[in-house]
Structure formats: structure tokens, C-alpha cells
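Entry: O-acetylserine/cysteine efflux transporter
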Amino acid sequence: MSRRDNALAALVATLWGLNFLAIDLGMGEVPPLVFLALRFVAVVLPAVFLVPRPAVSWRVLGAVGLFMSVGQFGFLYVAMGVGLPPGIAALVLQAQVVFTIVIAAGVLRERPTVAQGVGVGLGVVGLAVVALGRGGDVPLLGLGLCLMGALSWGIGNVVSRAAKVPGGLSLTVWSGLVVPVPVLALALVVDGPSAVVEGLAAVDGAAVLATLYTAGVASLLGYGIFNTLLARNPSAAVVPWVLLAPVVAMTAAWLLLGDLPTVGEAGGGLLLVLGVLVALRAPRRRRASAPALGVGRALAGQGRERGTDAPRGEVGAELVDLVEGAEAR
């Protein structure tokens, strides 16, 4: 990826890391699925009237919305609702990096490079170190739900990559149309009508501010940039950056909530950063061979000597330009 795209990916990771704290602080007495429905109402309105619909089918919009939004955040919000801490939730959700690269390799034939494979491996080790260093205060149900959210996110990433929608913001907004109604219906089934009504009545200033952040900053800005990056870069080059989100989440939890990281969390976070750096290491370019350059010059020369053999000369000249350009790089 270009330096600009790398910087944008780092920005997204930072915004998403802070998003976990916003969810934790804003949920309060509001049921998780109700809080999620409110988030996507804020994502869709009024943006759906201002942003043109992306040039993809409703089937693609529905798939992105169901996997990247309903599935990912539905499992995540419920996991945090049963007691999964925001830092650990940010960490476990990054299993989506592995899921995305594996699914993209099988479906899109995007084979990861050796560096990307090693980087993801380091990231996975870092995730394990942080999880083990956390101790036994992490609910097993929350971990399982969060992993399901990671799998759903990984599928959504591959769908978004395959669609190659040039405008990430439009995909974020229009795919969000499929979120509020099914999530609210699920809340009525899981929590019951009375709990949903009471949850809506419990919305306070903290919930409103958290909704504005999760909708406006994390979803519209964050996913708008992220989907744009997926449209123009291989999945294996984009998703490793998200491994930095748990580092941001844990650092913010430490500074804002006094949740001091353990030695395991700090060591695992460093491994995550190292994994990202390795995964994003640019592959070496192969130097062009002298024989190839010689063939190109010979073809170009023959074309110049034979006035009737211009096509061969053009091919030779193009080959020379290509090879010399490769050597210059």
C-alpha cells in the first residue's frame, strides 16, 4: 500500500480502538442490541438521503450489512454486555485478521506473502499472550461470542473486497439500512418488549455521546475509509493494521479508566505491533536481468533498421522502457 493508505489504515485502527471504550461507557442500562440498533439508526439517518447508493446490487449491500455490521457488532455488543472488558473485546475481535486472510485466500485467490503470513502469526501469538496474561476474569461466553463476531467481520471484509466499491462511505451507509430492523427484532426476542422499552427510556447523555461517536466517527468515518482501502488494496495488506486497535483500546482504558495493563497484556501488545510492521513490510523487487534488457534493445534496433517492421520495434522499445524502469525502481 502507499504511505497515504498506510496512514489512513493507522487512523482507522486508532478510531476503532477508542470505539470499544465508547461502547462500554455508553451502554449503561440500555440492552446491547437496542444500543446497537440506535447506533445504526444514527449511521443511516440522514446520511442515506445525502450519499448516493453505491453501484452494487442489493444482494451485496445486504451481505455486507449482515456480516460486517449485524453479525460483527451483534456478537460484540452482547459479549460486552455479559461482562467482556473493552480491552479484551478489542483484542479477541482481531481474530478477524486471520479469518479474513484465510477466507480471501480460498475465495478470492489472494495468496498472502511470506511477510504477511509471519506478521499475522506474530499477531496471533500476541493475542494469545494478552489473553493468557489477563487471567481468569474473562467470561468464556463473552470470548465465544466475540470470536463469532470476528468470523462474521472476516466474511464481511471479503465480500467488501470482492465488490470493490470505490466509495467506502456509500457502502457503509447503504449497507447499514439492513441493520436496525433485524437487530431491534432480535432484541425483542432476546430481551423482551418490556426490557426494550425500559432500555430506550434509560438512554442518557453518555449513551447519546457514545452513539454519536460509534456512528459518526467509528462507522461513517472509520468504515468509510476501511472499505475504500479494501476496494483498492489486497485484503492481506489492509486488515493487519486493525491489529493495532486493541493496543489503542488497552492504552486508552489505562489512561481513562485506570485499567493498568498486566505484563502479559503489555508484552502481547508489543507483539501485535511487531506483527503489523512485519506484515506491512514491502517485498523486495526483483532486479531485471541483463539478457532481458539486451533482447529488448535488439528488438527495438531491428524495428528501427526495418522500416516495415515497426510493430517489432515498438514492442522492443516498450520492453526496454519496462526493464529500465524496473531497474530504476
